[in-house]
Amino acid sequence: MVDVKHPFFSLPTAADRRDRWSWHLGRILGIPTRIHASFALVLVWIGISTWSAAHSSVAVALGLGFALAVFACVLLHEFGHALVARRFGIETRRITLLPIGGVAELEREPSDPRAELWIAVAGPAVNLGIAATLALVGFALGSFASGGLLALVLSGLVWANLMLGLFNLVPAFPMDGGRVLRALASKRVGPVRATQIAAKLGRYLAVGFGVWGLFGGQPVLVLVAAFVWFAAGRELKRVRNRPAPPAGNRVIYVWRG
Ligand SMILES: [Zn+2]
């Protein structure tokens, strides 16, 4: 049955196009979806590094195709959050793909810990589901045993989705795992204390990510660490100043990762 309210795809509206620093893909299931312009730098970097390693245009095309497939999986992760949020009556203003991952901007914060738990779990669950499906396809086709290009692409995508699913479940608030922790803890100690526990743990883990990223040569991890550090700090400040936000407040609620 066609959902008239949210068709699978529609063109971006003039309001969606207001941000000139993004490519507007259109509205997918009613949600404006865009790719930030800085994403082009990632593609250029992948193109240059693949060319300098392999000196082959086929390798460059494969590298870019693989990167786009991984980012499509990140997009599906964000839609996991957005569609479960919709089930709880929370719409998503837009989804943006950035070089460090995706962002779903929910129109309000889930006031019920149960909603936060399911919205948080949905993103990583999408990636773990994709990993399991592609692994089954690979085994069914016998491609893993025979090796070759298909096996390389499939195993690469299985690995990437496992990493996306498991990394986002690390309990570093405001990453998904941190939100799961907060939702579970708030049943026992209330939302304010649960936010403090999750945000403080997020900050400790951010330091760990930062050190790992710096010494392991992973610049993206350093960016994620900075994001987690500042976002956890902002959330700590918020609960200190305004312990009980009015239910259904209409601030845009940024759901990263
Ligand atoms: Zn997520």
Blueprint (SSEs and pairs):
Blueprint: E1 9-10, E2 22-28, E3 31-36, H1 39-54, H2 57-87, E4 92-98, E5 101-106, H3 113-141, H4 143-146, H5 148-168, H6 176-189, H7 191-215, H8 219-241, E6 253-256
Parallel strand pairs: 3-4
Antiparallel strand pairs: 1-2, 2-3, 4-5, 5-6
Bound molecules: zinc ion.
Describe it:
With 257 residues, this protein is of the alpha+beta class. It has one domain. Helices cover 63% and strands 12% of the residues. The protein contains eight helices and six strands, in the order βββααββααααααβ. The protein has helices at 39-54, 57-87, 113-141, 143-146, 148-168, 176-189, 191-215, 219-241; strands at residues 9-10, 22-28, 31-36, 92-98, 101-106, 253-256. A six-stranded mixed sheet has the order 1-2-3-4-5-6, covered by helices on one side. A hairpin with a 2-residue loop joins strand 2 and strand 3 (31-36). The longest helix is centred in the first third of the chain and has 31 residues, at 57-87. Mean pLDDT is 89; it is low at 246-252. It binds zinc ion. The site of zinc ion has 6 residues, from helix 2. Zinc ion is lined by residues 77, 81, 123, 168, 176, 257.
